[in-house]
Design goal:
Blueprint lengths: L2 H16 L2 H8 L3 H15 L4 E3 L4 E3 L1 H28 L4 E7 L1 H8 L3 H7 L3 E7 L13 E5 L7 E5 L4 E7 L1 H7 L14 E3 L10 E5 L2 E5 L5 E3 L2 H9 L5 E4 L2 H8 L4 E3 L5 E3 L2 E6 L6 H10 L3
Parallel strand pairs: 3-4, 3-5, 8-11
Antiparallel strand pairs: 1-2, 5-15, 6-15, 7-12, 7-13, 7-14, 9-10
InterPro entries: LysR-type_TF_proteobact-type, LysR_HTH_N, LysR_subst-bd, WH-like_DNA-bd_sf, WH_DNA-bd_sf
Protein name: LysR family transcriptional regulator
Family: Belongs to the LysR transcriptional regulatory family.
């Protein structure tokens, strides 16, 4: 294979996996115009359109999908081979791509970024915050971070946090105006901050449990969001009751008196945060170092 052939295929794989010329160009260190020219050369050589382009998205054509399914695993194998060779030298360097939930980015990664960089100055962390449960293999991520119950069985998982309690919270001003719910069904008479699931667009049904009795409540209110920070901010500003993991951000607001937990005797725990990666992938030393940092080892 000529060097230009390899470069064209590498560019094609990058565009398919990132669904964007701009993001692929940034990843490859090329200008968007140079990347477009490279793809045109590949399509001309093959004699077929490989990518469907619109003003908003890029996707593989039928022929492009066939080509991608054959060449993408080869690039992954080459990346694994390079990682293994790098590991044998004892040097921790390279780029580590992590796809993570927003809660993990805020609670786990952000507080440890400086420590990780000081320990491994030659590693570039590429952190993508994504609550939509992206396919980390198709996206060529080295690992993902999700709540335990959302992991696929063919992944290797490492627990990063204990199980997490869920809590309903509201501002003192809201409760003074509207009263405090005593049982979960009282929420039907309250303004609540709805959470939209990115996986399928449905509203999340709030879950409660007390002495083995479990309830799921569909709530309504003035704000719908798929971002936890918006829901917490809406609750702090008195717009309604929010439902959230009992994490440092929310616990600190409760300690400050800016939020009050409601229905404290109706609680449920969810599986904690797990880092996961494909069982078909060699775990490079830099991923192991990242895991150690997240676990404060």
């Amino acid at each position: 294979m000529r060097g230009s052939d390899f470069a064209e295929l590498k560019a094609f794989v990058a565009v398919v996996e990132r669904r964007s010329f701009a993001r692929a160009a940034e990843h490859l260190g090329l200008s968007p115009s140079a990347l477009s020219q490279t793809i045109r050369q590949l399509e001309s050589r093959i004699g077929a359109r490989l990518l469907n382009r619109t003003t908003r998205s890029v996707s593989a054509s039928a022929i492009g999908e066939q080509l991608y399914s054959r060449v993408a695993p080869l690039f992954r194998e080459m990346a694994n081979a390079v990682a293994e060779a790098s590991d044998s030298t004892g040097q921790i360097k390279g780029t580590l791509r992590i796809n993570t939930l927003g809660i993990a980015a805020r609670e786990l990664i952000a507080p440890r970024l400086q420590r990780f960089h000081r320990a491994h100055p030659d590693v570039v962390l590429d952190i993508v915050v994504d609550d939509a449960l992206a396919d980390i293999v198709a996206g060529r991520f080295d690992a993902g971070i999700r709540v335990g119950g959302q992991l696929k069985k063919d992944m290797i998982a490492v627990r990063l946090s204990p199980d997490m309690k869920m809590m309903a919270v509201a501002s003192p001003e809201y409760l003074a105006r509207h009263g405090t719910p005593k049982i979960p069904t009282d929420l039907h008479d309250h303004a609540c901050i709805n959470w939209r699931l990115q996986t399928d667009g449905r509203f999340y049904r709030w879950e409660f449990e007390k002495r083995g009795k479990r309830q799921e409540i569909a709530v309504e209110g003035p704000v719908v969001t798929n971002h936890a920070d918006i829901g917490v901010a809406a609750a702090v500003n008195g717009l309604g009751i929010a439902y959230h993991f009992e994490v440092d951000q929310v616990s600190e607001l409760v300690k400050q008196g800016r939020l009050v937990q409601v229905l404290p005797d109706w609680t449920i725990s969810r599986p904690g945060l797990f880092l996961y990666y494909s069982n078909r992938q060699h775990r490079p030393a830099l991923l192991g170092s990242f895991i150690d940092c997240m676990l404060d080892r």
